[in-house]
Amino acid sequence: MHTRRETIGLLSVAGITLAAAAQDLPSKIVSGKPKPAFEIGGFDASKGEYVLPALPYKPEELEPHIDKQTMEIHHGRHHAAYVTGANRAMKELAGIREGGDAGLVRHWARELSFHVGGHVNHTLFWNMMAPVGKGGGGQPEGAIADAITNDFGSIEKFWAHFEANAAQVEGGGWGWLVFDRISRRLMLIQMESQQDRFIAGAVPILGVDVWEHAYYLKYQNKRSDYIKAFRNVVQWKFCSWLFEQARA
Fold it and tell me: In b/e form, how buried is each residue of 154-179, taking b as 16+ CB within 10 angstroms?
């Protein structure tokens, strides 16, 4: 099990070290306290490779809010492609260090950032959701609810801002609720692609994927409807755990 410092590093999307320890990301919380993580995958330390984590629920269990086919394609194809791309980028950069063409560092560094970002974003995303009746939905409670009210004015104002923020991401990207460790406040920011425009050191608390592959089969071009539906499967206990780790 990771130390608190290692876990915070895992949650910093802007850092390459983020996914390097992803095999122990927790997905179950009991009585508001984290249990030791069961293996959900993310990184195989024995091989030094990223791996595709299993979903923490069946693909159909998020219906009717997110459909089974979308979940299967999103996880089994899109997320898997980020894992493949991340491993290739690491291999190519290792080859450059052993005497390869250093002129290709820029290319493979960008590939690493994109694919590791995609892998980590999705590893977090699956665990930020849960089926209705099994942890998904409802409103935040406890310390995270207090912080949201303090930093956004009210839970209702937060949701309105969250939905507008995610809906207005240009092209493919993410809408994130993050904890800024400098101001020690929650804020809503946008991420373009899988890594661009993210604040270095910010800790992800809740994110929604607004690439079209995350919603188009069910919602077509109605991104806002998808974001509203996403609220019904947010696993606030997991998000609360991330918040507690971030502010510790």
Answer: eeeebbebbbebbbebeeebbbbbbb
> Mean pLDDT for the chain?
86
List Cβ neighbours of 64 (8 Å cut-off, separation of 6 or more).
Answer: none
The answer to whether residues 181 and 114 belong to one domain is no
Note whether 118 and 63 are same-domain residues. Answer: yes
Longest dimension (CA), the chain: 56
Q: Which of 127, 160, 188 is the last residue of a domain?
A: 127
pTM of the model as a whole? 0.84
| Domain finish residue from 101, 127, 153 | 127
- 157 in the same domain as 62: no
Range of the domain at 53: 4-127
Length of the chain in residues, anyone? 248
Tens digit of each residue's pLDDT (9 = 90 or more) over 164-203: 999 999 999 999 999 999 999 999 999 888 887 788 889 9
